[in-house]
Amino acid sequence: MALLERAQALQAAGRDILHLEVGEPDFPCPAPIMAAAGTALERGDTRYTPAAGLPALREAIARDYRERLGAPVSAEQVVVTPGASGALQLVMTALLNPGDEALLCDPGYPCNRQFVTLAGGVPKPLPLDVADQFRLSREKLAQYWGTATRLAMVASPDNPTGNRVDTAELSAMADWCAQQGGTLVVDEIYQGLCYGAPADTVLRHGDRAVVINSFSKYFGMTGWRLGWLVAPREMVSAVERLAQNWFLAPATVAQHAALAAFDEETLLIAEQRRQLLDRRRTLLLEALPALGLPVVGGAEGAFYLYLDVSRHTDDSFAFCRDLLEKAGVALTPGLDFGAGHDPHRYLRLAYTCDEDRLREALRRLADYLEAR
Amino acid sequence: MALLERAQALQAAGRDILHLEVGEPDFPCPAPIMAAAGTALERGDTRYTPAAGLPALREAIARDYRERLGAPVSAEQVVVTPGASGALQLVMTALLNPGDEALLCDPGYPCNRQFVTLAGGVPKPLPLDVADQFRLSREKLAQYWGTATRLAMVASPDNPTGNRVDTAELSAMADWCAQQGGTLVVDEIYQGLCYGAPADTVLRHGDRAVVINSFSKYFGMTGWRLGWLVAPREMVSAVERLAQNWFLAPATVAQHAALAAFDEETLLIAEQRRQLLDRRRTLLLEALPALGLPVVGGAEGAFYLYLDVSRHTDDSFAFCRDLLEKAGVALTPGLDFGAGHDPHRYLRLAYTCDEDRLREALRRLADYLEAR
Ligand SMILES: Cc1ncc(COP(=O)(O)O)c(C=O)c1O
Ligand SMILES: Cc1ncc(COP(=O)(O)O)c(C=O)c1O
């Protein structure tokens, strides 16, 4: 956060800053989604909706699981939420009682800790090994699962590593957690952003996992604040009641806009963007190791690369700060993603700017490392 | 909730239901706000904003306090949120540690309990007396404040009573709470909807209260999910950090739309609607007592009347259910607003439909009561 503010301050002061720290795609919201929003505006459709979302949107999401992803999801299992953020809050609170432990992949998405704490739970790091590319395995899960553990949380594709975990493997983990009386929560917010394999969901193999998703990333709807969760039927009414009390409802125009997300035209735009991201990724994967910045983590999805910077520093935070000041390149230090995985060795690069800017970033990085 | 679902089911089955249970105005979102939303759409302004909201909107809200309401509020004290709901979540969690008690006016807004519980706090009813029109006083506050109390919550104007508490009096209560090491939270979501007195804020008299507000009701923006809070400066950075983690940011197009809320044209529309609501209120205040339904509570604001139905029943829930089935009039039973104020005697009427429909409701009520 301190670095993000510093990057913005430098930019405001006229410096040309290369923003490789931002977890938001640089593409505009797709035209069909914007058009659907405009139509809802013209109709004046801006009143409260049901707490779990418009029935038509719940059905559209469920249909997409069935028809595009091949998973048997029904509309009653889907709850539309204010972003994946809202879904995470609902799921953590529905699943955790005060004192219950939640295992959080380390490295992993930083806000998860805060949702566990909000729910009265105890966040426990599940430190992953660089030797496994920081990838979650059944063995790791069993190793850290304790008597007070009620939940484990994994993202696939992952932030910050870009890792994908095989969905059959994830489903087996979900079954194992259920056998222990707990739940595996799978954050599929980067679902559509896969390289070298089609988009997939754990729900193709079973219904024990609780799934988080969002229109933010793949569908380019960040500022609309709209996501969803898919839960086993018996959990939904409790989740709906919480949503009714805390949120009243997700945003109305956003929901009407999102109805266009699964249109052929939108999916085509999203696919073109995925290809652009893949080109950026390829460019970086070729250039970074030559700078003494090997990529750890699978880099098979999302728009992040997790880099080992230990050849140049033993403090990735200080490195990021210095790089920002001297070269105007903003990156995110490993510490943001957890304390349990030796974070001072690592930093995250988000390829959320175009190839020209990425080449400029590589030039500046090379100059900076040479002068260091 | 059960009654609300039943009312919707009856309507779906073709019955003509008079909806006097809905806490949402029947007016469309004002045209200048819709136009501003359209402009933001055309600009493609849909990315994440800062967690506390667009600086221009925080400033516009603060300016409205200074110029229209005469309260010395600065932009740094304002945090824009996903509805008053989001503001309530932030404030309760920032102010309560696990085990801390929060006093909640009974009758009062039902979701407050859930926000306290979410924060790990213990909701304590602050039962108000019908002899005081269910109005909060300094004496009541002191009577129920205990050693574990950290917070008291009051809405003015209130849901469900329509009560207003004098703002100087509220400010004195806020000072008193601060002396006890606690905080008074004042929900001003119905601020603009005052009858017989101008809109007012506790912040005109001091800065100890934490204030909740929203674009939902007065500005007709329910489905946009946008509200705000005003807090003492030293509290803001903690609130901002929570908002960053839980919400990432409030909805972007909604924020650009809300920039038009304080335009002269919008305020004129809002004022005309307030006058329409006042006419409905006058109509009902004249007719209801003659039906043996005296209005308890001040009915000086919002769009609610709290009615004493004890002349006809000793179970207002059963009464509401029967009235819905037999006469197609939907009202909200007292139990929704707390268990501590003898709720079986009371029910809430929301005058969120036009005068013709209200007259029809009065006719059906009269027939129903006669046949009973
Ligand atoms: C892994 C992960 N989960 C959830 C979120 C929350 O996103 P949103 O609330 O915009 O859907 C993010 C955002 O960066 C993320 O990276
Ligand atoms: C007293 C009170 N506070 C807060 C809210 C929440 O409103 P919103 O989240 O739409 O701003 C309501 C809604 O009915 C209310 O009546």
TrEMBL record, chains A, B:
Segments forming domain Aminotransferase class I/classII large: 16-365
Protein EC: 2.6.1.-
Keyword Translocase set for record: no
Pfam families on file: Aminotran_1_2
A GO molecular-function annotation: transaminase activity
Cofactor(s) demanded: pyridoxal 5'-phosphate
InterPro entries recorded: Aminotransferase_I/II_large, AspAT/PAT-like, NHTrfase_class1_PyrdxlP-BS, PyrdxlP-dep_Trfase, PyrdxlP-dep_Trfase_major
Keyword list, A-Z: Aminotransferase, Pyridoxal phosphate, Transferase
Enzyme kind, highest EC tier: transferase
Taxonomic superkingdom: Bacteria
Annotated family: Belongs to the class-I pyridoxal-phosphate-dependent aminotransferase family.
PANTHER family to which the protein is assigned, alphabetical: AMINOTRANSFERASE (PTHR46383:SF2), ASPARTATE AMINOTRANSFERASE (PTHR46383)
Protein name in UniProt: Aminotransferase
Organism: Alloalcanivorax profundimaris
